[in-house]
Amino acid sequence: MNAHLQPTGSAYFITKETQETERHTLSVLVDNEPGILARVVGLFSARGYNIESLTVSETEHGRRLSRITVVVIATPKVLVQIKVQLERLVPVHRVHDLTAEGASIERELALIKVAGSGDHRAETLRLADAFRAHIVDATVESFVFEVTGKPDKIDSFIALMQPLGLVEVVRTGLAAISRGREGM
Question: What is the pTM of this model?
C-alpha cells in the first residue's frame, strides 16, 4: 500500500481529559451522630472515589462535633466534585481542602513489629533511635516500635526494617490541621 493511501486516523477528534491526579487532605467537620461516617464513606464508594487514608474522632465534646480527615488521590475536577458533594450532606458543617489552602501539619502514628537477633537486633535499635521510634514492647525475639511523623518518614522506617525482620505494621491514618490562629 502506498504511504499516501494509508489511513491517518479519524476525522473526529475527541480530546481526552488528561489532568494529573493529585493527593489532597480534606478536613470535614460533622455532627457526631450515628451513621455519619457511613454516609461520608458511602459518598466516596458510590461514585468510585478511592480513600487513601481516613481518620475520625470527636474533637469538640461540648458541641458533639467530629472531624473526619480524608486523604484522596484524584484529578482537580474530581476533587471539586468531592468537596461539593460532601458540603451537601446535612450533618456536614465545613469542608476544608488543607492541601489547597497551603500550610498544614500532617502526622501519622504507626506500630511496627520487627523480629530478629544478633546483628540485626542491634541494627534495628540503631535505626529506631535515628528515627526517634519508641520501643513500646520488647521480647528476646522482637520489638514493637511506635513511630510518629509525616507519612514519608514512616514509609522510610518501614522500608529500612524490611530486611531486618519486619513482621507487621499498623498505621493510624493521617491526622492534619491547618497552621495559624484560625480554626476550622
Answer: 0.77
* pLDDT tens, position by position, 3-32: 444 444 544 444 445 578 889 999 999 999
CB within 8 A of 120, min separation 6: which ones? 164, 165
- pLDDT single digits (tens) 112-131: 999 988 888 999 999 999 99
Name which of 47-61, 129-143, 159-173 the model is least confident about. Answer: 47-61
Residue 86 burial (10 A CB sphere; 0-12, 13-18, 19+): buried
Rounded Cα distance between 25 and 140, Å, is: 40
In angstroms, the first-to-last Cα distance of the chain is 67
Dihedral over alpha carbons 77, 23, 21, 83 (to 10 degrees): -10
Cα radius of gyration (the chain): 23
Q: How far is CA 102 from the centre of its chain?
A: 17
